[in-house]
Amino acid sequence: MKLPWQKSDDSTPAAGSTRADLSEHTGTAGTADSAGTANASANADGTEPRRPKGYTPPKGRPTPKRREVEIERGIIRDPSAPKSAAQRSAQRKELKKSMSKEEWKAYKAKEREESRQHQREVQKAMDRGDERYLMPRDQGEERGYVRDWVDSRRFLNNWVMPVALGLLVILFIGTWLPEVANVMSMFAMVLMFMFFIEGVWLGSRANKAVRAKFPGTTAAGLGLGFYTYSRATQPRKWRTPKPRVEIGQQV
């Protein structure tokens, strides 16, 4: 018989219930561990592993930032993208307003000097024949070979510009000496005919040499022939890119 002042003996079952409650609270972790073990065993057996509810497979790439998504959709403008002429003009006006007259003058002088320095560097690279700075008409191995082919030879077309200047002089002389002007005009016409014949021959020879040097090339043709003719009519010192070979050198 249990007296009123004596403690109850139900402490043991209560402890048992407490342990049961704890096991219920920790049941999720135990379930996850058991699920992981089951998945591992399922994978070992070659079957599809069971996934917990709400499982999302990995995308294989990091989640893009909101700013990147907005730039891709065109919601905001990419600051690293090249600006339009109107935007550059507006930015330049704002910069001018933020400077004094002397500061703006110094800024423009510095800008002009940087532009001249850049142009000099680009021109030097073009003279060297650097493909990154050449004009589209000068790019390509075939065009480089044609330049060397022309620069290593002498042609009658090398005198096209001096003859053109002579024709201008004849036009002025004709106002006072018509007889001399008529003779010089006939001589100039003969030279121009010879220039034309040699130009056709130059284009044909250059295309033949390019096809022999680069079998299967698609760069040969009328355009390459005209490029050869225009190169030959320029004075040697004025040519761009600069000649890389001497006259008479084997190419």
Automatic annotation (TrEMBL):
It comes from the Bacteria. Coiled coil: none annotated. Residues 1-127 are annotated as: Disordered. This is DUF3043 domain-containing protein. Pfam families: DUF3043 (PF11241). The keyword Ribosomal protein does not apply. The keyword Ribonucleoprotein does not apply. InterPro entries: DUF3043. Residues 26-46 have a biased composition (Low complexity). Residues 65-76, 91-127 have a biased composition (Basic and acidic residues).
